From TrEMBL:
One of its GO terms (cellular component) is cytoplasm. It comes from Trichoderma harzianum (Hypocrea lixii). The lineage of its organism: Eukaryota, Fungi, Dikarya, Ascomycota, Pezizomycotina. It holds the Pfam family adh_short. Residues 114-135 are annotated as: Disordered. One of its GO terms (molecular function) is oxidoreductase activity, acting on the CH-OH group of donors, NAD or NADP as acceptor. Keywords: Oxidoreductase. The keyword Oxidoreductase applies. The keyword Oxidoreductase applies. InterPro entries: NAD(P)-bd_dom_sf, SDR_fam. Belongs to the short-chain dehydrogenases/reductases (SDR) family. This is Short chain dehydrogenase.
Amino acid sequence: MALSVAGKYAINTGGGSGINLAFAKKLLSRGCSVLVGDISLRPEAQELLKQYPHDPSTPPSANRPAALFKKTDVTSWPQLSALTRAAETAFPQIDIVVPGAGIFEPRWSSFWNPPKSPINTNSPSRDDADGDPGHYAVLDVNLTSHSGLVTYRR
């Protein structure tokens, strides 16, 4: 059985570029309105907003889905709350949440280059081996983002 997203409403973090931009395009092409939360939009994402304009006086529908943008840093709870409020204002409900934002980390602070240690002396990382939690922002955001889904539980 195929699931339809026509007439549904989605929040898509990270939809300003990359994989989640492709996901936003697919949702819109299938009749789902999308609010993109990202730090910025690549030119192709800006074109998507023009292709699926949002008219606040007419609610989006399956026949006329809309794409909206709200500048959002997903590492900031206040900005995530603002994204939620923007979705609640623009849409009658939230049906789909796509927590897919990537976090830029300098090459010296990443999962693939763990901190220097006695057994990892050649690492380009500048992080302390016993550093405070939070050095691996990508893991933090993608693992904790699921807690935000509780907001949309019916």
